[in-house]
């Protein structure tokens, strides 16, 4: 860390409460981003990048502030502190905070910093973008990055082969390139595989999120190729 912290995950809860209240200047039971960053840097010894990354990790609902429950839960989790202490991991977290704004930037990070080839990066991007929204949130990236199976999946050549094949098939029917297959695109796909039943029923069955479109993870699940 950038400085010295006088706290550890094992300190009594009352001490953590006292620390929290010290920075809760408006006494509303939450730390604003500014208040939280001050706490993380001044009392926990983090640098700017570590503090920014930690705030986004702790603010799980993305509300822009941290409750005491969120802070205490993170503080008690030794892995939470380990992640920001691990310089190599914190580098990627900070990188994601700065750069995960669109698909192009995400693919650059996956290839340039994580050493993936084009196929791996494309497959990984579609896997992480679970809602098919066309962008990856910090929470989506971190959830995948923290899950060892996620990295194993793209590093396992046999699995990656099938996922890459699925990417090719998915892109073939994602005519507008928006990262999802809509109702009309699904009809083309079903026709190609000689599916003769109701396409609306098929969409309802495949669309597990109920948003009227099929994301890549939903497509993989349909193929029964979803990594596990």
TrEMBL record:
One Pfam family hit: EF-hand_7
GO MF assignments: calcium ion binding
Domain of life from the UniProt record: Eukaryota
CDD domains with a match to the protein in the record: EFh (cd00051)
Record carries keyword Metal-binding: yes
SUPFAM superfamilies: EF-hand (SSF47473)
Keywords in alphabetical order: Calcium, Metal-binding, Repeat
EF-hand domain location: 46-81, 116-151, 161-196, 200-228
Name recorded for this polypeptide: Troponin C
Gene that this polypeptide is encoded by: Tnnc1
């Amino acid at each position: 860390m950038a400085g010295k912290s006088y706290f550890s995950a094992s300190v009594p809860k009352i001490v953590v409460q006292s620390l929290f209240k010290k920075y809760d200047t408006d006494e509303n039971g939450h730390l604003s981003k500014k208040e939280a960053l001050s706490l993380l840097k001044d009392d926990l010894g983090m640098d700017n990048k570590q503090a920014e990354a930690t705030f986004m990790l702790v603010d799980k609902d993305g509300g822009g502030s941290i409750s005491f429950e969120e802070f205490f839960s993170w503080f008690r989790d030794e892995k939470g502190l380990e992640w920001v202490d691990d310089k190599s991991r914190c580098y990627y977290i900070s990188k994601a905070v700065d750069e995960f704004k669109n698909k192009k930037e995400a693919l650059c990070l996956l290839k340039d910093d994580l050493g993936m080839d084009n196929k791996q990066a494309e497959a990984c991007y579609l896997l992480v973008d679970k809602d098919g929204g066309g962008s990856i949130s910090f929470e989506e990236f971190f959830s995948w990055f923290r899950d060892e199976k996620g990295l194993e999946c793209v590093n396992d050549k046999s699995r990656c082969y099938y996922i890459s094949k699925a990417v090719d098939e998915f892109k073939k029917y994602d005519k507008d390139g928006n990262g999802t297959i809509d109702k009309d695109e699904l009809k083309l796909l079903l026709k190609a595989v000689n599916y003769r039943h109701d396409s609306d029923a098929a969409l309802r069955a495949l669309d597990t999120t109920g948003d009227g479109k099929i994301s890549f993870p939903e497509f993989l699940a349909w193929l029964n190729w979803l990594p596990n």
